[in-house]
Design a protein that fits this description.
The strands form 2 sheets. This protein has a 7-stranded mixed β-sheet with strand order 3-4-5-6-2-1-7, covered by helices on one side. The chain has 3 domains: 112 residues, Gyrase A, domain 2 (2-Layer Sandwich), CATH 3.30.1360; 90 residues, tRNA modification GTPase MnmE domain 2 (Four Helix Bundle (Hemerythrin (Met), subunit A), Up-down Bundle); 184 residues, Rossmann fold (3-Layer(aba) Sandwich). The radius of gyration is 29 Å and the shape is flat. The two termini are 15 Å apart. The longest helix is centred in the middle third of the chain and has 25 residues. Helix content is 47%, strand content 15%. It is α/β, with parallel strands linked by helices and 472 residues long. Helix 15 runs antiparallel to helix 16. It binds guanosine-5'-triphosphate and magnesium ion (MG).
Amino acid sequence: MKSRGDLIAAVSTPSGPAARGILRFSGPGSWNAALRIFRPRTLPPFRPFSLVPGSTIDGGMPALLLLMKSPKSYTREDMAEIHAVSSPLVLGMMLESALKGGARLASPGEFTARAFLHGRISLTEAEAVMKIISARSDSEARLAAAEIGGGLSRAIDRPSGDLAGILARIEMGLDFSDQDVPLSGDLEIEKELRSVVRAMKRLAGARDGSAPQAGEPSVLIAGPVNAGKSSLLNRCAGFDAAIVHESPGTTMDAVKVHVSFRGADFVMIDGPGFGMPSSGAERTAQEAYAGLACAADVLVAVIDGALPIEDSEALLRGRTCADAGGSACRAGAARLFPSRPPDLLLINKADLPPSFADSAAGALFPSAGILRASVLTGEGVEQLLEAVVRLISGGNSQAAGGRGILNARQRASLHSACLCATRARRALRTGLGAEAASVDVREAIEHLGKLAGSSVEDDVLDRIFRDFCVGK
Ligand SMILES: Nc1nc2c(ncn2[C@@H]2O[C@H](COP(=O)(O)OP(=O)(O)OP(=O)(O)O)[C@@H](O)[C@H]2O)c(=O)[nH]1
Ligand SMILES: [Mg+2]
């Protein structure tokens, strides 16, 4: 998207009921163009960045005029905004007069594109503007707002700077390899590269070896069969996403739902329980589920509080499957919990007489937070969700924030940067040579530059800004 730098105008508020509708101008002659369709109540000169009271020339409706002077405006150009009643008729008439007066109708996202092209905001901030416009919830909007403050751009500065430092040292090694200059060893640089790769992966929200992540944090429910896992999922989702039944082994596949609680959004996942003899297909399902558990942001174990704790433990460890030839169960449970102990342990069915004290459950999973609830009555479920949200936003805020905040393009750039830096590490480790490593590190820096938008091609920009609304 190339800036033509001409005068553009558009209605920048959505149509529909609202207190105020805004006609926005940007480019040379913005002030005069606005003053042709707005009658000020006071005489000029008008001070920039103050609201001038008046009325529209078409229809004489009360309105306000806001004048902004380059470079201190959103687009860094001269800008003007007429704030009038949100009537499609009034706004339509004003826009028509503006276009007749010589302004061009702005294309979608053109105001924000100009802000980016004039260096007012980074590409990640421009994309955040779009996210705010299309945010489905408070938390999405808050994350996007953090980006407009430059959060992601600043987060990228760190690995970019580290990589630049590493590149300088690799190249110094190449230039001075035959002279008496103390140089960092390849292995030392390789170690530093490893920590930069780790930092970039954290930013991308991807853990080593984990499956690709969806945009939202994930909360996985696991535990013995019949503990009430699917009932919990349904209550949190607010609808019956999973089948609930009194016979154990009801859920066979992973069921995912979107949950919004107190402004936080996450994916909640339910799946097969432990403790049932399993066939080949069921075993595959359990193993796939155990894989998801390792990559989840929060792991919630659910057990039945009305059953003796020994029974739950046996189910979790797969012991009761032994008689039924259930070695696969054992493998499943062993895989799930030792490699990723649960963050929270929910003792369910609190509406029934309890069979054990909290301390007995605590001995099962010493590091987990323990809560009691009755998913049937709903008692205690809110407390569980509060604990989940605390873990998502506080416990691992960097990862959760990073995941929530990146879009597909940004994630792809980070991924490419990680690949290049990893290639450089390999070159240094295997003695392939500093020259090969320097090419890869340079490429990694370029990918991070793309993420911040410092070197993006026109067609990418077009694609990004095409999805904006007119007037933004
Ligand atoms: N009394 C009582 N019963 C509950 C509660 N939660 C679930 N149940 C019952 O326990 C049984 C099993 O519930 P599910 O939600 O299907 O359990 P699950 O853990 O998903 O079971 P699997 O899919 O077989 O692993 C059903 O009959 C539920 O109605 C509870 O809080 N109190
Ligand atoms: Mg179930």
